[in-house]
Amino acid sequence: MTASIWERFYRIPISVNLAYPIGVVNGLMALAFIAGFLRTVTYGYWTLFHAISVLSTWSYLIKPFGGPNHLFLAGVPIVAAMVALFMLREWDVLSVDGWRAGRLGLAARPR
After folding, report:
1. 64: pLDDT confidence band, cut at 50, 70 and 90?
2. 109 in the Ramachandran plot: left (φ > 0), alpha (ψ -120 to 50) or beta?
């Protein structure tokens, strides 16, 4: 199913064997994102990944009432939230990186 989604929405044909490593990488990145570990990398990765996902469904977004397409609209405010989270990542003190900065006596504020 992952291979068919990549081919349909991203126009990138991948083999089923390649879908497993992609899933492992996404799983690890999701765990790091949830924990707030390596915030610049993980928040940036998911912001970019989600923005590409939303942009790849542009044809469904321009005609939202032509069937079950309204579900694709839910991704647009999430992209905005992801951009805001990425921009405010230095103030995220409830994360692994924020905890480590506090233990080292570093300010959890932007440079």
Report:
1. low
2. beta
